[in-house]
């Protein structure tokens, strides 16, 4: 028995090869652009050249005359034939000034890239030729690009139905009523008046985001009999389906949305519901032919993947012993047009302010946000959803306090870290479980700080400048209904259907659509571990609304937290039934706990001679359901839902060591070290990969990537020559370490990970640079981190 | 995303055939394609819309690296990868390998050519500045057979503008072998590794018997004027032994004299600083190579 | 229209194509070899479209099909010999060198060529060799490891 237990491979925590990889390394993946339907037509969008203009008229005649062009649709077609995009299904439960808009621009264009018309042709080359021939007559309007300026009286108005350009505003602290909030403000002001140490800074983070390698795409097939089948590069097919039903007014039984099995990354960019979905679906319906749109990189960089773009005026008060007292922030976010459903851009900065307190024990906080509409593309979610800029501001401020009180920043952080969970922050964010101090202490075992300081001092004598910078972050691990319902009017539960087949294979169905996270493998490991079978004996189907349970989507690290928990629950339900029948067949009375599922067998622990191969007992229950115990019916399929009572978190601490060359202000990362609490791990390779990817995304955002608009609102960075992503030669190797606490609220003790992970990167990196350049008194308060701007600061300090 | 319609594609076997095809079209309607790493970008963005594309890949005569006692000749269709791998390009010609081995990425280097780069003369490109510093002579032939040689500084007029006429082909580049010991080097700076140069500096020097600088040419890349020579730096290097002080002075002069633009990659002051720091590194290397260093 | 004959993964294909048809579209749409991906517009920076032209790694989005007439193209579908994966393909699976897989074919093609020229590379050389392939998911760490492992595998197989 012992030997048998040892022989059973441990699938939990394993570094198992991924099931996805065989097809992906042989070029057999099936992404949206690989799906072809007979008779398929191709769509190319005509997009606005102007940031803000009236559409006086659109002449499609030359385009229509081109052989091979089937149709050209404009905003008027959508205004008259299809509902607007501002439908309840796409509206959050937050009070905001939601502007009306249609699938194509109507009356006005409001950002450079705003879709104005769509050409449908027999092939995509012809469609592009025709798109060039569509003549749009514009009358330019004044452009407003700066968020703070947009909120000033007299600024050009972006939306007629949103006077003042304020999309959203909120106070996150003090209480629900204005009176409570004002009392809180006064109390916080009092703290600042009397505190030993106050640091006040205006932190500016540029417009950047996590554009995935695969751009978006939509393929719609419409028949009169069966309605609409829409393949969409989406993280949330079930939500997209609801939106298509409501906006296009198609009965639900005739709408099916399929997220392709393979998607080339999402990172939040494929989580909103986009106008192009409606345009292509409507075009397919009108023409009665399949229509496919594949986004070009140019379109992608024009329209999506733009996030961050915040100014946070942050004050921090502390005692001279380094005890943090109060945090006060006035955040202003640049939302662009706000015309993208589900998030409307502002939900990201909203969450960013909620997460501002991070893991520190503040006595009080006074945190307010205003979100402004401008003539830029609407913000789309990007990993580290909304809090990349706020985390930067807080982690920089912590270092400045540390310098003022003469304390090591790592020590000051530890001193103020929440010592015991659960804990609720001053913005009401709930931290469910974990041990921050354990993770932090583990991080500090990787550096001998006193020795580092000695080396730093010695090198300074030689005119060389090294520095170390710390940062940390509590990140959402799954997004519970408690948060998702108010934020997005959507549920948070995880859902899974598990079907065992008569040959002992297991099929799992999940509604959330992955984009590279390895869900097929992770789930197979969970199922293998639960049923005592091999991971290769299971298969996972995701993302097809016709075949999977309803799920809110692959967002906010829900897989490792919610989806696998639902899988486990469904398997657990099936184990109850299997053991119930087996006990009955064996003529014994036994509960599920008295059986072991191991090495492909189901074994009665009290008498291991009483057992049955998994394959046989499941076949018996599914195919030969006679002589069953009282009340039991045949079949082995279960659907389970998992919801945590409260949102959950994971946690990471980082440090990096840099050397700055003061002749050129170039900085080189010598080490990047992390310490993570990820709960129990299912696949260690996958978790490691998530961390590497997130940190490099953070570096790329902080240093290389920037969306730039000129004064006329022309976006100048819509290709990879101008919007530069970090290559392998630009980023360092990364040392990961783990100091996890199993999550008490999930059946497997797992935590969802990876979503917010990039957020601690800009803080750690800029803290390291400021530490290196401390003799010059340089404090970084703006991103991106560029040698050019850093060099100017050094020169100024040198006098 | 996709090029505009191309009516004709031809792949001539000889130079004369290529020129004759070109001459059948109005000015600007026919274009020669070499490696295509720049031209394809321009065609796909529809910045350029040739009616006729004349592919030079089949003309073997246009490829090759031929050094002899008097000169180095490189065929216009010679790929960056070939240049980067040729160990004979050392000493005075080492800058060619420095530049070629860091253009774009290795996929680009497997296609892009030295001739294509010089004829395109993009504002932020490496080879034009290098061939300028090495004093290349551009060998041209026109439809009808007329040949001419044009000095690099007369050939490289302005970004995207060269002295190559319509219906004229660049056959190759000819570099005079230095009198005496020579060395050259090239380095560039961009925001990401091996990016198009925000600033690039090429220095080529020769030494007399006493070890003093007998000739100095400095080519700058990345400035808005396109590839040009930093004559102030050249003057300052002449007669020096390549000591640190002389080099520092030379590139202070170059930095001050440079008409450096500010843009999203670097402001004017930083560009000038790059001229200073890159120039110093490159000049030091050029002098060392002239003295026999193999680095 | 022009008639071209292009050998792809060892098999010759004769097709009538317009001169402006991109090589990547020829492969993906005429030959249904969708393993080669398109990740950028005109700039040819992302490298997802990398294939071999006569054994050299090149970007198929920066070539016209007509330019490949008479040449040999290898795509990711041509790396394995039947069911036997190449060393790089095996190494990428072992080292978790991919997540979404969109950039992966381009990287496999580039690194196959790279290892031919540089069979015993340092990590820095691998990173330098990868400049022409953008990856968003992995942060490159496991990719570098996979290339190193593949180099070891190839060296062992050669012995």
Key terms:
heterotrimer, A: 799 residues, alpha+beta, Aldehyde Oxidoreductase, domain 3, Aldehyde Oxidoreductase, domain 4, 3 domains, seven-stranded mixed sheet, five-stranded mixed sheet, 22 helices, 27 strands, 31% helix, globular, disordered N terminus, B: 295 residues, Uridine Diphospho-n-acetylenolpyruvylglucosamine Reductase, domain 2, Uridine Diphospho-n-acetylenolpyruvylglucosamine Reductase, domain 3, Enolase-like, domain 1, five-stranded antiparallel sheet, four-stranded antiparallel sheet, 14 strands, 25% strand
Task: Provide an overview of this structure.
- The complex is a heterotrimer of chains A (799), B (295) and C (159).
- By secondary structure, chain A is α+β, with helices and mostly antiparallel strands.
- Chain A folds into three domains: 39-141 and 216-294, Aldehyde Oxidoreductase, domain 3, CATH 3.90.1170.50; 307-481 and 645-798, Aldehyde oxidase/xanthine dehydrogenase, molybdopterin binding domain (Aldehyde Oxidoreductase, domain 4, 2-Layer Sandwich), CATH 3.30.365.10; 493-642, Aldehyde Oxidoreductase, domain 4 (2-Layer Sandwich), CATH 3.30.365.
- Chain A is built from 22 helices and 27 strands.
- Chain B has 295 residues and is of the alpha+beta class.
- Chain B folds into three domains: 8-55, 2-Layer Sandwich (Uridine Diphospho-n-acetylenolpyruvylglucosamine Reductase, domain 2), CATH 3.30.43; 60-176, Uridine Diphospho-n-acetylenolpyruvylglucosamine Reductase, domain 3, CATH 3.30.465.10; 181-290, 2-Layer Sandwich (Enolase-like, domain 1).
- In chain B, 32% of the residues lie in helices and 25% in strands.
- Chain B has helices spanning 15-23, 39-44, 80-85, 94-100, 106-109, 114-120, 127-133, 152-155, 231-237, 244-257, 268-290, and strands at 8-10, 30-33, 52-55, 65-67, 71-75, 137-142, 147-151, 156-158, 161-162, 168-176, 181-189, 199-207, 213-221, 228-229.
- In chain B, the strands form four sheets. In chain B, strands 4-5-10-6-7 form a five-stranded antiparallel β-sheet.
- Chain B is globular and about 60 Å long.
- Chain B starts with 7 loop residues before the first strand and ends in a 5-residue tail after the last helix.
- In chain C, strand 3 and strand 4 form a beta hairpin.
- Chain C has a five-stranded mixed β-sheet, sandwiched between helices.
- Chain C is globular, with a radius of gyration of 16 Å.
- Chain C folds into two domains: 2-78, Ubiquitin-like (UB roll), CATH 3.10.20; 87-158, [2Fe-2S]-binding domain (DNA polymerase, domain 1).
- Helix content of chain C is 35%, strand content 16%.
- Chain C has helices at residues 23-30, 87-94, 104-117, 123-129, 141-158, and strands at residues 2-8, 11-17, 50-53, 56-59, 72-74.
- Chain C is of the alpha+beta class and 159 residues long.
- The longest helix of chain C has 18 residues, at 141-158.
- Chains A and C meet through helix 2 and helix 20 of A and helix 2, helix 3, helix 4 and helix 5 of C.
């Amino acid at each position: 028995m012992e030997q048998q237990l040892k022989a059973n491979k441990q699938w939990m925590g394993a570094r198992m090869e991924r099931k996805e990889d065989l097809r992906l390394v042989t070029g057999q993946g099936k992404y949206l652009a690989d799906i072809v339907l007979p008779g398929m037509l191709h769509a190319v969008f005509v997009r606005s050249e102007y940031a803000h203009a009236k559409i006086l008229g659109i002449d499609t005649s030359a385009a229509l005359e081109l052989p091979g062009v089937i149709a050209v649709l404009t905003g008027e077609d959508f205004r008259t034939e299809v509902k607007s995009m501002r439908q309840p299904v796409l509206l959050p439960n937050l009070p905001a000034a939601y502007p009306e808009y249609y699938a194509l621009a109507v009356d006005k264009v409001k950002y450079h890239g705003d879709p104005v018309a769509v050409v449908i042709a027999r092939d995509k080359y012809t469609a592009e030729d025709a798109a060039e021939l569509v003549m749009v007559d514009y009358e330019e309007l004044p452009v407003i690009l700066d968020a703070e300026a947009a909120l000033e009286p007299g600024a050009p108005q972006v939306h007629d139905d949103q006077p003042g350009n304020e999309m959203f505003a909120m106070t996150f602290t003090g209480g629900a009523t204005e009176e409570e909030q004002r009392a809180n403000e006064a109390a916080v002001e009092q703290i600042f008046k009397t505190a030993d140490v106050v640091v006040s800074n205006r932190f500016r983070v540029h417009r950047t985001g996590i554009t995935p390698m695969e751009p978006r795409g939509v393929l719609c097939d419409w028949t009169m009999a069966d309605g609409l089948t829409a393949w969409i590069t989406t993280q949330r097919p079930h939500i997209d389906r609801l939106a298509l039903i409501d906006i296009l007014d198609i009965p639900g039984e005739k709408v099916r949305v399929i997220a392709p099995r393979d998607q080339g990354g999402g990172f939040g960019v494929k989580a909103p519901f986009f106008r192009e979905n409606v345009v292509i679906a409507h075009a397919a319906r009108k023409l009665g032919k399949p229509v496919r749109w594949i986004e070009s990189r140019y379109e992608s960089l024009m329209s999506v993947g733009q996030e961050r773009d915040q100014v946070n005026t942050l004050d921090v008060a502390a005692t001279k012993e380094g005890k943090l007292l109060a945090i006060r922030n006035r955040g202003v976010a640049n939302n662009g047009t706000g015309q993208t459903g589900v998030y409307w851009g502002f939900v990201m900065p909203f969450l960013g302010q909620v997460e501002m307190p991070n893991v520190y024990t503040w006595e009080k906080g006074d945190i307010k946000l205003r979100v402004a509409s401008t003539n830029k593309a609407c913000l789309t979610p990007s990993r580290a959803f909304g809090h990349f800029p706020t985390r930067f501001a807080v982690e920089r401020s912590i270092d400045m306090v540390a310098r003022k009180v003469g304390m090591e920043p790592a020590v000051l952080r530890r001193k103020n870290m929440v010592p015991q969970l659960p804990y609720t922050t001053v913005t009401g964010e709930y931290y469910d479980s974990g041990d921050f101090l354990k993770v932090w202490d583990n991080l500090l075992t990787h550096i001998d700080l006193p020795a580092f300081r000695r080396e730093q001092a010695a090198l300074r004598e030689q005119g060389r400048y090294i520095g170390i910078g710390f940062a940390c972050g509590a990140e959402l691990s799954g997004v519970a209904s408690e948060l998702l319902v108010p934020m997005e009017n959507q549920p948070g539960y995880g859902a899974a259907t598990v079907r065992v087949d008569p040959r002992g294979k297991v099929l799992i169905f999940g509604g959330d659509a992955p984009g590279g996270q390895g869900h097929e493998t992770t789930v197979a490991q969970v199922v293998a571990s639960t049923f005592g079978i091999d991971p290769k004996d299971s298969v996972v189907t995701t993302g097809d609304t016709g075949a999977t349970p309803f799920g809110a989507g692959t967002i906010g690290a829900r897989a490792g937290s919610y989806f696998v928990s639902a899988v486990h629950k469904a398997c657990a339900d099936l184990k109850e039934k299997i053991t119930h029948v087996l006990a009955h067949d064996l003529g014994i009375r036994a509960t599920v706990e008295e059986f072991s599922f191991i090495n492909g067998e189901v074994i009665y622990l009290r008498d291991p001679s009483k057992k049955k191969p998994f394959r046989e007992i499941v076949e018996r229950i599914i195919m030969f359901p006679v002589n069953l115990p009282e009340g039991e019916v045949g079949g082995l399929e279960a659907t389970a839902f998992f919801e945590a009572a409260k949102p959950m978190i994971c946690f990471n601490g980082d440090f990096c060591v840099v050397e700055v060359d003061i002749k050129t202000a170039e900085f080189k990362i010598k080490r990047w070290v992390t310490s993570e609490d990820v709960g129990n791990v299912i696949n260690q390779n996958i978790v490691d990969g998530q961390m590497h990817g997130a940190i490099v995304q953070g570096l790329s955002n902080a240093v290389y990537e920037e969306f730039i608009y000129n004064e006329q609102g022309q976006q100048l960075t819509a290709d990879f020559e101008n919007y530069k992503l970090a290559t392998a030669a630009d980023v360092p190797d990364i040392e990961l370490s783990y100091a996890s606490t199993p999550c008490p609220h999930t059946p497997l003790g797992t935590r969802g990970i990876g979503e917010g992970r990039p957020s601690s990167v800009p803080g750690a990196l800029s803290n390291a640079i400021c530490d290196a350049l401390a003799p010059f008194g340089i404090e970084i308060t703006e991103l991106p981190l560029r040698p050019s701007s850093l060099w100017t600061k050094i020169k100024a300090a040198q006098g | 995303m996709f090029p505009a319609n191309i009516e004709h594609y031809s792949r001539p076997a000889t130079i004369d055939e290529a020129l004759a095809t070109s001459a059948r079209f109005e000015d600007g309607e026919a274009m020669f394609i070499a490696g295509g790493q720049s031209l394809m970008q321009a065609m796909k963005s529809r910045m350029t819309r040739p009616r006729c594309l004349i592919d030079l890949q089949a003309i073997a005569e246009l490829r090759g690296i031929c050094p002899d006692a008097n000169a180095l000749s490189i065929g216009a269709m010679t790929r960056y990868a070939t240049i980067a791998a040729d160990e004979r390009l050392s000493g005075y010609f080492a800058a060619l390998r420095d530049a070629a081995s860091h253009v774009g990425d290795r996929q680009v280097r497997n296609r892009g050519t030295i001739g294509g780069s010089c004829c395109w003369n993009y504002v932020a490109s490496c080879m034009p500045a290098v061939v300028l510093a090495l004093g290349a002579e551009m060998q041209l032939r026109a439809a009808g057979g007329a040949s001419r040689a044009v000095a690099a500084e007369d050939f490289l007029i302005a970004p995207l503008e060269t002295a190559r006429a319509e219906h004229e082909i660049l056959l190759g580049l000819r570099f005079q072998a230095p009198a005496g010991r020579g060395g050259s080097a090239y380095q560039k700076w961009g925001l990401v590794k091996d990016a198009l140069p925000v600033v690039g500096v090429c220095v080529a020097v020769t030494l007399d018997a006493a070890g003093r600088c007998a000739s100095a040419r400095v080519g700058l890349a990345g400035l808005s004027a396109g590839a040009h020579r930093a004559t102030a730096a050249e003057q300052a290097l002449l007669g020096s032994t390549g000591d640190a002080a002389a080099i520092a002075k030379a590139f202070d002069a170059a930095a001050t004299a440079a008409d450096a633009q500010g843009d999203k990659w670097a402001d004017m002051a930083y560009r000038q600083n790059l001229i200073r720091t890159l120039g110093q590194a490159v000049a030091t290397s050029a002098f060392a190579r002239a003295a026999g260093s193999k680095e | 229209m022009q008639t071209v004959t292009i050998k792809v993964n060892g098999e010759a294909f004769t097709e009538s194509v317009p001169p402006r048809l991109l090589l990547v579209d020829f492969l993906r749409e005429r030959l249904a070899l969708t393993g080669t991906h398109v990740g950028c517009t005109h700039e040819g920076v992302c490298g997802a479209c990398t294939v071999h032209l006569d054994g050299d790694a090149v970007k198929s989005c920066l070539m016209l099909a007509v330019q490949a007439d008479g040449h040999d193209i290898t795509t990711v579908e041509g790396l394995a010999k039947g069911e036997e994966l190449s060393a790089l393909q095996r190494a990428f699976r072992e080292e978790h060198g991919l997540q979404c897989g969109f950039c992966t074919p381009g990287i496999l093609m580039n690194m196959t060529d790279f290892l031919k020229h540089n069979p015993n590379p340092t990590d820095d050389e691998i990173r330098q060799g990868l400049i022409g392939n953008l990856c968003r998911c992995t942060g490159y760490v496991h990719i570098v490891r996979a290339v190193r492992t593949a180099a070891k595998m190839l060296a062992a197989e050669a012995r």
